[in-house]
Write a structure and sequence with these properties.
Elements (H helix, E strand, L loop, with lengths): L5 E2 L2 E4 L2 E2 H8 L3 E5 H16 L5 E6 L6 H9 L3 E4 L2 H9 L7 E3 L6 H9 L4 E4 L2 H13 L4 E6 L27 H13 L3 E7 L10 H21 L5 E3 L18 H19 L5 E4 L3 H4 L3 E13 L3 E6 L8 H5 L5 E3 L9 E6 L8 E8 L7 E5 L19 E6 L2 E6 L4 H4 L7 H4 L11
Parallel strand pairs: 4-19, 5-6, 5-12, 6-7, 7-8, 8-9, 9-10, 10-11, 11-12, 14-16
Antiparallel strand pairs: 1-2, 2-3, 4-13, 13-14, 13-18, 15-18, 16-17, 19-20
Family: Belongs to the Orn/Lys/Arg decarboxylase class-II family. LysA subfamily.
Pfam families: Orn_Arg_deC_N
Pathway: Amino-acid biosynthesis; L-lysine biosynthesis via DAP pathway; L-lysine from DL-2,6-diaminopimelate: step 1/1
Length: about 450
């Protein structure tokens, strides 16, 4: 969805002139398109929720979460995945329907679980036996029966970067499928009057362009369902097949797939497997994050220093970088970009887009073809909607950018730009350091 719309000379995003956005709100600036999120949600409703009975879809909020995003997801009729007390708190403050929330995470704390139980959230995805025991205690204390799924480790990896594959056996996530371990956990839940085990969840990895890992994982789960029915009389009511659907970041990636590419084989495999093993079809839940919001976001920067090293390369530096988009440094992730104020001009040079951090690795894009660039140009990095704002840091004490929500030419601030004083909000100088005499001893006379 790299729609390179232009209006005169400027790059237009969801009917907004991006150069005007940069002037109005400053840079760096995250811009999120409400309409693009909406159209992804529509695809999910039409090709999954309405096409197949007994299904649910949740948005994996760690990709991008603000209270405004909670409102959009609520309006679009999806559920919400959270993985921390902070994400849950955001949803609570946005009045998101609690019964549509699923809580994941490999090491939830007592306080996080207690908050979830207090608010009667829809499902807790229990990652290990330690968590199960803690949750049972909390549910008992609050006099409640809590609906859970077990996250299992299906023993298949996703075909993607090793840091974002999660389903392989040697993983920190999920309950291993060794018979004695999984049966112990299931039996323990069945015996508890405060726990209602509804089924299982797996998530094989992220940024996937094929469905084979999902299919392998489903086969593993079908075996598990069959064994648990025979051995313990346990009936699996729900199966959550995770997220991971990939998007196209650059020309090197395949085009983004629409919902049927992923969903139809998943549903077909589960249906056939259940028929063969004489199992009731469970409710199927999916939870895409990146696929919903990744292509809905761009980041606007202003170009500053441009340094040409003769016969080597030209570095064009932006007023942000690693703190607002750590993915290139973290995963060698690749992005494409447009010079927003020269969107109608032909590429005539190749520059490397450098961030402003004191890190050699702070390069946003290597070898980007651009029109002749000058300091002051506005650069729009594309497809930054997922895992940018949500992964942002204050490294080098850079204030985090503002976030603007655009829709049909309208632009609304949904997160204010951080100011220097915000950076010091929670800092404290201990008393014994508060009145020191500034010394010249080490700094020189
Ligand atoms: C991160 C995550 C997702 C979403 O992953 P995407 O690649 O963004 O779709 C879904 N489920 C779980 C449990 C996750 O941890």
């Amino acid at each position: 969805m790299n729609s390179k719309n232009i209006n005169g000379t400027n790059f237009i995003f969801d009917n907004c002139d991006t150069v005007e956005l940069a002037q109005t709100f400053g840079t760096p600036l995250y811009v999120i398109s409400e309409d693009r999120i909406k159209s992804k949600c529509e695809d999910i409703r039409k090709n999954f929720l309405m096409k197949y009975p007994n299904t649910k879809a949740a948005y994996a909020s760690k990709a991008f979460l603000t209270m405004a995003m909670c409102k959009i997801i609520d309006r679009e009729g999806l559920g919400l995945d959270v993985v921390s007390g902070g994400e849950l708190y955001t949803a609570i403050k946005a009045n998101f329907p609690m019964e549509r929330i699923m809580f994941h995470g490999s090491n939830k704390s007592y306080e996080e679980l207690a908050l979830a139980v207090t608010h009667n959230i829809g499902r807790i995805i229990v990652d290990n036996v330690y968590e199960l025991e803690m949750l049972e205690r909390i549910a008992k204390e609050q006099g409640k029966k809590v609906a859970i799924l077990f996250r299992i480790t299906p023993g298949v990896g996703g075909n993607t970067h090793e840091y974002i594959t999660t389903g392989q056996k040697d993983s920190k996530f999920g309950i291993p499928l060794e018979k004695e371990i999984i049966e112990y956990a299931v039996r323990k839940s069945m015996d508890s009057s405060n726990i209602h085990l509804k089924g299982f969840h797996f998530h094989v990895g992220s940024q996937l362009f094929e469905i084979s890992s999902h299919i392998l994982a489903i086969q593993v789960v079908l075996d598990l369902m069959k064994n648990l029915k025979e051995e313990l009389g346990f009936i699996t009511e729900e199966l959550n097949t995770g997220g991971g659907f990939g998007i196209q970041y650059t020309d090197e990636d395949e085009a983004t797939k629409s919902v049927p590419f992923f969903i139809d084989p998943i549903m077909e495999t589960i249906k056939e497997g259940c028929n063969e093993a004489n199992l009731d079809m469970p409710m199927i839940i999916i939870e895409p994050g990146r696929w919903i919001v990744g292509e809905a976001g761009i980041t606007l920067y202003t170009l500053g220093a441009i340094k040409e090293i003769p016969n080597v390369r030209t570095y064009a530096s932006v007023d942000g970088g690693l703190p607002d988009n750590p993915r290139p440094a973290l995963y060698k992730a690749k992005y494409d970009a447009i010079v927003a104020n020269k969107a109608n001009q032909k590429a005539e040079e190749v520059v490397t887009i450098a961030g402003k951090c004191c890190e050699t690795g702070d390069i946003l894009i290597w070898d980007l073809k651009v029109p002749k660039v000058t300091s002051g140009d506005i650069l729009a990095v594309l497809n930054t909607g997922a895992y940018n704002y949500s992964m942002a840091s204050n490294y080098n004490k850079l204030p985090r950018p503002a976030v603007v929500l655009v829709s049909q030419g309208d632009a609304q601030l949904i997160v204010e730009r951080e100011k220097y004083e915000h950076l010091l909000d929670r800092e404290v100088i201990p008393e014994h350091l508060d009145n020191i005499q500034s010394t010249k001893l080490t700094f020189g006379a």
